[in-house]
Give the backbone structure.
Amino acid sequence: MKFEIHRQEIKRIDDNKVASFSRNHVHATFVFDKLWKDLRKFALFVTPNDEKYIVDLQYGQTIKCIIPSEVLENAFFKVSCFADDLITTTQHTVIVYPSGYSHDIDDFDLDDDNVSSSADNDDIHKIRFDEACFIPPQKEFEKREHIHD
């Protein structure tokens, strides 16, 4: 995802969707105007529970960083920037879309004989589990339509 910072306003300039529970994969690129030149910059990522994650962007006019995975476990997060002498930006809300993954999947032994790979057979209907499981949808994703910038 890409953000443009003009004076004290942050604006998202791409339309890529962000999937939940990604780790070390989702990047943010910040493009700063000349007001921010020679300043040490930081990105502030905030969850709906007001948990804050600060990423040191260092110096430069175009800076790329990895978005903290913790903020991708929610239906949305907010991002803003600040610098040395407390130059701040507005906040931008980023919607996070469900990925299908859940931490409950960690309970499965993916090396178990009950999980087939496409290399084992071509008929997906042969894949079975000894125990049926139900992973409930996450409530925070149901509230997505009520989120505004």
About this structure: The CA atoms of residues 116 and 127 lie 6 Å apart. The first helix runs from residue 139 to 142. The first strand starts at residue 2 and ends at 6. Confidence is low (pLDDT under 50) at residues 118-146.
